[in-house]
Specification:
The chain is α+β, with helices and mostly antiparallel strands and 487 residues long. 35% of the residues lie in helices and 17% in strands. Residues 469-487 have a biased composition (Pro residues). Residues 465-487 are annotated as: Disordered.
């Protein structure tokens, strides 16, 4: 027999018309309608003898309503827990001792021999159970491993997030500190510019005040002379003629006047054009924000035999005779070059070299692993970044190809600025400490340690005998004037 109602629909029809819940201890009225025992009792107390069925409105006696036993059994049956899964075959009533691998279900021995599963792969239940437990354990192990990896990933992400926040906080603090320093430097330059303008104006005003005082003295004396002449002109004819020759002569009166050219118009020239204020201040600030000049010394072990080092290995010049130095495997043998003792593999660095009036020289950096024996390949391809002067007139950057540089004048002090991480090597005309003039910038991907290199060029029978000098730092941002040793 097929059922026409589902369990939810049946449950809906087993609700009390009064409380709208599933019947509890149902009782049936003479009219045939049923109610919960507690609901019917409440209606009887409230209505008394006038009790009527809430559904059909027929008068009934609430006290004598019998329990609806059949309805109560149906409700109890619906409330019972589901029957446990059978442990025996429904068809053969034998124990479920096998597991069909093809259909994925438990069967009995007869099902595997005679029933629908006779051609299927079957496994005893204990073996299938053990195998599935092992698979479940492996799955749980994989799941735990994945959970561990996810937890480690979460930890790395959290640490990364924390590190980024900490680094951003530190960098923000550095930015604020650097901008405070920039504001301080700008205020210093502002005060310096204003002081220069005010000092120049004060000097000019003082000169004009002196001229003005002199001219006002002459003006006063001329006024006095004019007043005396007016009084004299009012005397009688005889007195006028008698005293006329005793008056101050015209020449003496003229001498009381300011001499021609006494007043010289003065123009206010502050030494700084309004349109150049930003550029000039920027140049001064650029020099101040450069790293402190490096205190370099030359390495005798790398010097060519003809090079003479002096002044604590800060001065080098090319001589005519080889120096008495032990032969070193790291020295140059075919070029008049020497390296500094200290190299750079990171950071920002600035140093200066005094070239004076030397006619031939080359400066820059060299990779520590670059070849030093034989003829040098002076180019970035061979690990050398150089700028130099040839025959006292041609400045050139040793790139690929070489670049002729339009340098104004002949700088006697060359500044070199290395920014390793940015891959920049910049040369400056550093004769004016507050006005560094860029000469050339190399762009490269630096690898390994870089050493400052000085190439004096050959002696040329005295025509190129002047030395190259590594000056000692004279205070960050304010290098002293060029000083050259006597040749």
């Amino acid at each position: 027999m097929a059922w026409q109602l589902s369990l939810p629909e049946l449950e809906e029809r087993l609700r009390c018309p009064v409380c709208l819940e599933v019947f509890t201890e149902p009782r049936m009225l003479p009219c045939g309608h049923s109610y919960c025992g507690t609901c019917l009792l409440a209606l009887s107390r409230h209505l008394g003898a006038e009790l009527r069925c809430p559904v059909c409105r027929q008068e009934v006696a609430g006290s004598g309503s019998p329990p609806n036993v059949s309805l109560a059994r149906v409700i109890d049956a619906l409330r019972c827990p589901p029957a446990p899964e059978p442990k025996a075959c429904v068809q053969h009533r034998d124990p479920l001792s096998l597991f069909c691998e093809d259909d994925r279900e438990l069967i009995c021995g007869l099902c595997g021999l005679l029933g629908a599963h006779r051609q299927h792969r079957v496994t005893p239940v204990p073996a299938a159970y053990s195998r599935m437990k092992e698979e479940l354990a492996a799955l749980m192990s994989d799941l735990k491993q994945e959970q561990k990896e996810v937890e480690e990933l979460v930890g790395r992400l959290v640490n990364n997030r924390t590190r980024i926040l900490n680094e951003s906080d530190v960098f923000s603090w550095v930015i604020r500190r650097e901008f405070q320093e920039l504001h301080r430097l700008v205020e210093e330059e502002k005060a310096r510019c204003l002081e220069g303008v005010q000092g120049r104006a004060h000097g000019l005003v003082t000169s004009l005040d002196a001229q003005l005082e002199q001219v006002r003295g002459v003006q006063k004396r001329l006024g006095q002379a004019e007043h005396a002449l007016e009084q004299f002109s009012n005397q009688s004819e005889h007195e006028f003629i008698r005293k006329f020759h005793s008056l101050v002569s015209r020449a003496e009166l003229l001498r009381t006047r300011p001499l021609e050219g006494t007043f010289n118009p003065i123009s206010f020239k502050p030494g700084l054009h309004q349109a150049d204020i930003k550029l000039t201040v920027w140049k001064r600030l650029f020099r101040k924000v450069l790293p402190a000049p490096e205190c370099l010394k030359l390495d005798p072990a790398t010097a060519h035999p003809l090079l003479e080092l002096s002044k604590g290995n800060t001065v080098v010049q090319c001589g005519l005779l080889p120096q008495r130095r032990a032969s070193q495997p790291e020295c140059f043998d075919c070029s008049a070059c020497v390296l500094a003792t200290h190299g750079f593999s990171c950071g920002r660095h600035y140093w200066e070299v005094l070239v004076g009036s030397k006619s031939d020289w080359r400066l820059g950096v060299m990779r520590g692993t670059a070849r030093r024996k034989g003829k040098l390949g002076r180019s970035p391809e061979h690990g050398m970044w150089l700028l130099g002067l040839k025959e006292g007139r041609a400045y050139e950057a040793f790139g690929c190809p070489r670049v002729a540089l339009p340098v104004a004048g002949h700088p006697q002090r060359i500044g070199i600025y290395l920014h390793y991480e940015r891959g920049e090597l910049t040369f400056f005309d550093a004769d004016q400490p507050d006005d560094l003039r860029p000469l050339y910038t190399f762009q490269a991907d630096f690898q390994g340690k870089l050493y400052p290199i000085l190439d004096t060029g050959w002696h040329e029978r005295g025509g190129n005998s002047l030395p190259l000098v590594l000056p000692p730092p004279a205070g960050h941002g304010h290098p002293g004037p060029p000083q050259y040793p006597r040749p």
